Amino acid sequence: MAVPKSERLMKLLIMLLVQRRPLGKHRIREHLYPGSGAEAFEKMFERDKEELRALGVPIETAPLDAYFDDEVGYRIPPGEFALPEVSLTAEEAAVVGLATRTWHNAGMTQATSAAVRKLTAAGVEVDLGALDMATPSGSAEESLFATCWEALCERQPVEFDYQRSGETTVRRRHLQPWGVLRYRGRWYVVGHDTDRGAERLFRLSRVHGNVVKVRRPGSYDIPEDVDVGEVARRMAPRPVAERAVLLVRQGAGHVLRRGARVVEDVPGPDAASGWDRVELDQPIDGLVEDVLAHGADVLLVEPVELRERIVARLDATLAGSPA
Fold it and tell me: How many CB atoms lie within 10 A of CB 243?
C-alpha cells in the first residue's frame, strides 16, 4: 500500500534532520521509496524536496566524499531549522490550548499533542483543562473537515451534496480543495469548482452526507498566489450585525470589550468580584465559542436563542463528562 504523501514528507524531513553527514539518494530511496523504479523515485524525491523547501525547510546538498564531488548527499542543518525560543503570554497560551481542543475534534490529535509537548518543554504553560468547556461539541462537520483536509494534503478532488442558503434543492458539487479554514465562527472549504470553472467557498455545515475523495492523489495543483483567507472574505456572506448583551467579570473579557458599550459595576451572577455590562452591535457568528472560552467570567444575557445554544453546549459537555 502506498504511503500517504504527508507521512512520506514527514519521514523525509526527520531522516534528513537527524543525519550528521549528507545522506545519499540510494539510502533515501531504500528507506522511504521502497519498490519504486529509478525514474519514479527521481520524480517523487524532487517533488518532495521542493515541497519541503517551499515550507521553509533548509535542505542542503554536499559531496558524499570530501575528495570526490561526483555524487551529492542531502541533509537539514539542525541549527538553521530550529525555531527561536518560544515566548507566549498567558492569553496566547490559552489560545494554543483551545486550538488543540479544536484540532483534536477535527482528527489531528497526534500533530497537536506533539505541538503542546514542545511548548511545555519550552516552559510555556498550556492549561488544557481550563478550556474543557470551550471544546467544540461533536458534529458532522468533524468528519467532513478531516476528509477535506486529507484531500487537500493529497491533492485529491472531492465531491459532495450541497444545499445553498435559502434554497431547498441539494446539488452535487465537485471541488479541488485549496484550503480549509474557520471564518466568522464557521468551517469552510475553499477551492476550484470544476463544474463552474471558478473558485468557490462551501460551508461544511451545509453539506448533506459525506465528502468523498475522487480520482488519484496529485490530480491537481493549487495556484501559487491563492490566499484562501482573502477568498473567504470576498465570497462569504456578509453577516448582519446584531445586538448582544453580556455580563463580564471585571478584569476579564478584554477582547469582548473592544468597541463595545460598557456599564461598570452592575449586579452579576456571583459576588466573588465586580461585574460590568457589555453591549455589542456586531455579527454574532462565533460568539458562542468566545463566551465559552471565557468560562465563568462571561455570561451571555441576550439574544435569548444564542444563550440557549450556550446552555445546550454546556449540558452536552456535562453529559459527556465522567461521573
Answer: 11
